[in-house]
Amino acid sequence: MSKSTNLKVRLPVLVLVLEVVILALYAVFVTYDDNTNAKLQNNETDPMQNSLYRDYPYFADVQVMIFIGFGCLLAFFRFYGFSGMVFNFLTATFTIQWAILIQGFFQFYHDGKIYLGVINLLNAEFACAVVLISFGAVLGKTGPVQLLVMALLEIPVFSLTEWAVLKYIRINDAGGTILIHMFACYFGLGVTFVLYRPSLNNGHPKETTSYHSDILSVMGTLFLWVFWPSFNSALTFKGDDQHRAILHTFIGLSSSTITAFALSAVFHKRGKLTMADIQNVTLAGGVTVGASVDMMISPVAAYALGVMGCTACFFGYKYLTPFLAQRMRIQDQCGIHNLHGLTGLISSIAGICAILLASEETYGPSLYQIFSHRAPPEGDPKLLELQELIPGLKPGLGRTAQEQALYQVAAVFATIAASTVGGLLTGLVMKLPFMAAPSDEDCFDDELFFNTPPDFESVDALKNLISLEEKEKTSSVNTKV
Amino acid sequence: MSKSTNLKVRLPVLVLVLEVVILALYAVFVTYDDNTNAKLQNNETDPMQNSLYRDYPYFADVQVMIFIGFGCLLAFFRFYGFSGMVFNFLTATFTIQWAILIQGFFQFYHDGKIYLGVINLLNAEFACAVVLISFGAVLGKTGPVQLLVMALLEIPVFSLTEWAVLKYIRINDAGGTILIHMFACYFGLGVTFVLYRPSLNNGHPKETTSYHSDILSVMGTLFLWVFWPSFNSALTFKGDDQHRAILHTFIGLSSSTITAFALSAVFHKRGKLTMADIQNVTLAGGVTVGASVDMMISPVAAYALGVMGCTACFFGYKYLTPFLAQRMRIQDQCGIHNLHGLTGLISSIAGICAILLASEETYGPSLYQIFSHRAPPEGDPKLLELQELIPGLKPGLGRTAQEQALYQVAAVFATIAASTVGGLLTGLVMKLPFMAAPSDEDCFDDELFFNTPPDFESVDALKNLISLEEKEKTSSVNTKV
Amino acid sequence: MSKSTNLKVRLPVLVLVLEVVILALYAVFVTYDDNTNAKLQNNETDPMQNSLYRDYPYFADVQVMIFIGFGCLLAFFRFYGFSGMVFNFLTATFTIQWAILIQGFFQFYHDGKIYLGVINLLNAEFACAVVLISFGAVLGKTGPVQLLVMALLEIPVFSLTEWAVLKYIRINDAGGTILIHMFACYFGLGVTFVLYRPSLNNGHPKETTSYHSDILSVMGTLFLWVFWPSFNSALTFKGDDQHRAILHTFIGLSSSTITAFALSAVFHKRGKLTMADIQNVTLAGGVTVGASVDMMISPVAAYALGVMGCTACFFGYKYLTPFLAQRMRIQDQCGIHNLHGLTGLISSIAGICAILLASEETYGPSLYQIFSHRAPPEGDPKLLELQELIPGLKPGLGRTAQEQALYQVAAVFATIAASTVGGLLTGLVMKLPFMAAPSDEDCFDDELFFNTPPDFESVDALKNLISLEEKEKTSSVNTKV
């Protein structure tokens, strides 16, 4: 069994193959876009108007979330901190370079080339967030080869779904609630369903946190919390739309956070705070405002959404996660269904309400910019009228609010279906024998894949100190299923 | 006694009540401002001119300081890392949503509504910094209910003081030395005076740091250090004023830092460096340049202010903090009087000197923009003349430099008075029996309010190792009083 | 011996002298530049056009790299975390204030004054990066007095070299590969050659990492990784040049990172991942793309450079570092020769190839902006023609691509020569008896210069647990020589 998890050949061969493929595809297909091609600059180009200055600040903020926020957050296990942080680093790095290509074919491809600028990287980061959220479902129970394979397969399924939903169903989803959070969630649940390990339902001795790993994980939460407004607003329209997206995200996170503290205390038998709640449930508001984040929902609605999302997320951790594990064979390690699925559902419903309530009275003519599919179609005289009020308004599909709402519903179901099927199939591939999956007893242990430092032994020795009494204390750690 | 610190009912009830109040007030009063309201955008609106792009970068930097900088810095106690970081998170999150409302009524209220944009959030963050600084005085000796109550009461007192000083006394205080640092300091000292715990004057066995908590705390210092220029310049005029604010803050911090190292070594009996000095005293320069941060004080003056502020802060920790604790019943846990009070005093004096020395020779006509109260009043022919040189110059009060200097002095005294009284009264409320204040022996211990991980027990066991010899070693930790 | 490392007098006296010198020089020479001088603003000044808004975002990103990225990365030793992080803080802070002066005399001096704005700080940060890289060669074996002296001497040598190369040889080196990375590397090697400690070639019992220090160090890597695109692009032309620099850096780092994982696994005898590789080798791509980072090299070339640089760096750690230590008396503690020297060499060659291949066909007229020395000289009619296409194009030297390539080669050799000689001489000064150098047995130990917390004793006690078996495990730690 120890032979089958050895990375000495598997990982390098996989990486080498991937690199050769990526190199070849970059060589043939990837070139500079209008903002990065020196030849296209002329005496009318104002360098400060380069798209870089609109995109890079948000790209950098999301980078911090991906590499440092997720990295620290996923390092919450006591004996699995190296793996949590470092596999996140590996998976994220591979995913972005892969998504540049695959998304590139779907979104930035014409005349035989993928055109590259920071905007592609920003889009690829969102694809990367999808993979990292799915990763949360199988944290501790998968090796690096499996994770690379998951990324390899998830990105095409995601890019196809994203492209199909945006091109054919055409939805409003500025914060990526449906396409990012819900897709990632159900894909991850599909994977973990296939990778079900019955013996882990009884808990695992190493499935625990330490004082330092809990603090590290809170730091990850704080980085995610601080930069979430950038995440939710990175791909909105510039101007007041982006401004509202930032406001709403901040307000939703704030109300979500204090709610999480209250719930954590009231449902602990001695009224104490549980770190897992603070690490995860506080963030629910960021997802919950997503689908309507750029709309005129009013600040108080963002506040209420934060409270609702947080509450759903909390009870999900408390009741749904154990139920899924024990009855449905779905072991959702980090509880992504609570933080991304339940909140995503609430967010989608809120988005639909916001769409149904949207009127020219509230939005003025920019209604047709935000809800671009409601804009009159090409040739409609109302379009010309609106274009005078909003220069550059693009023709839409002339949808009514009700029609748009139905398309949103369709998108939710389509996304759930595509991601679940994709996740199940990907899980089957990840289960193949040469994927270096850890054995049940080697789960949650850095020793398996890392050359650990001398003190890891002594840390390890402390495991013997975990008495029954202390085991009981860990019962509220979010990873206990 | 253990019953009285249980959060199971108290914290959720308080949070619930606060949320209902905030929801109601947001619903009735809070709406979008001109930069976030879709309806107000028209064909003359350039989205890239939205105020978001001027305010958000500074907002994000201050967010990092508040949540990560303060969070890590306050996690310096060995057995109180969860509490330091997490109570900071809770307090900050609540404070900002509360300050949006209260400051909103004072500063952004007209026609029955509070108008909301990122600029309100930025102002609320400064109010939040005030509460977190005050928190430093009582760190380790207060529970989350007390902290929320402190924030609940401090914000109105602060907002009222800020409004009254800016509206009636009208001062120059770009870096917030008087209104933020000095207010926060004397409010915190007022609170801690009321919460005096005589038994803690003899030290507490858990009032100590660990190797990891010290490193974590230095990381907090570094985040504060790096983003302090954004803090000091966030609310200055744009252009050269903000540019100078950033320069001066950086220079002041730099000279302050190397001074702190020198003083730390020279006053340790074996010439060693003390981490508490590096965590705190290095930052003194950032406060000391505050009151004159946007003025033409010259780079060398910023350098000298950093050295002076650092020196005062260092000796404050060494002599004044123990004196205050033992003779004045003021237990200033993190030494906020040194880092914010003494430096604030120096900064105020420096600001007054800079005001007295300011002349048109140095500043040109923009003298009347920076020192806006010296601008000629409405109707003065000189105003029209100046408005040709500086379009958009607002009419002022026609004050002389001497008059302005006197107003600055008045503002310092008014702020100290208001904050001290406010702090004393708030302390009385926080002392009420149902506030879940920790008992003396439960201070500085995460166990009281947190569900700690299994290894906290073994960490705890190490407490028995703290011999007399080791106690002596902690004598220079800043928390020893 | 213990007397000779006492900082009580030495450090304060040195800092005091430096501060007096700096204060005097700032007072006499440093004034505000056009963007920070209030007097130069008039009714045609648009505050939002102030250079601050172009420079500050990159300055802030590099600040995070310098203080937090380097700080955490250098804290990777188990018993030397305080020193790694805190000496980095001290050295960086001093270096920047010193570089503002010294670089100021070379680059920003006219009419008897150094003109100061954030752009000077940004340049000084690059000088600071040079010193911190060199510091990596002697980490653990030098005290703070030595480090300050190193910075004191390295900055003038660096500034002179930088000035001479840019003014007389005139090269393309947007990412600072030659002037920053290679200079820093060979200077550091020069210093460590002089400070050779034969006894450390057999390893040192404290030259080891811990579980927590390894994680902290990865966090440092992640901060460097995330903000490296800002570092490599901070001083390029604005617009498409900067945009390409960001793209290439990101792509180079990405391919470098996955390559590092593959190499780490394949060369470990049991196929495990080594943290030292993840902390260092992953970053190689950032240096390797440096010299051609703003050119039209195509995305695939950036990808390939990342792979090549990473490979060279990895084998450097594996074979070259031990060879240098045992045969050449060059103990390169952090392996800077691998991460900055070998990659710098590859980058320089790639830069030369890119220069030789650059044509108007690919770049259009902006060829003469990026390769500014190839622009026609003053008076050439072709210059006027080009200036119509690119307003503001400066006259160049009319060099051919081949000529420019030769100058690049000259610059590489000149930089290596100057830095090596400078490093050797600086090493001699640092070896003087009153420099408080730690004895061999006190290396890698915080105890020597820090007032450590009580649990450091117990951490220390764990040292006895380091058995032979565990020693073997550390054999792949990058610090083992």
UniProtKB/TrEMBL annotation, chains A, B, C:
The gene is rh50. InterPro entries: Ammonium/urea_transptr, NH4_transpt_AmtB-like_dom, RhesusRHD. GO terms for biological process: ammonium homeostasis. It is found in: Cell membrane. This is Rh50-like protein. Its main location: membrane. Residues 47-434 form the Ammonium transporter AmtB-like domain. It comes from the Eukaryota. It comes from Austrofundulus limnaeus. GO terms for cellular component: plasma membrane. The keyword Protein transport does not apply. Functions as an ammonia transporter. May play a role in the elimination of ammonia in the gill.
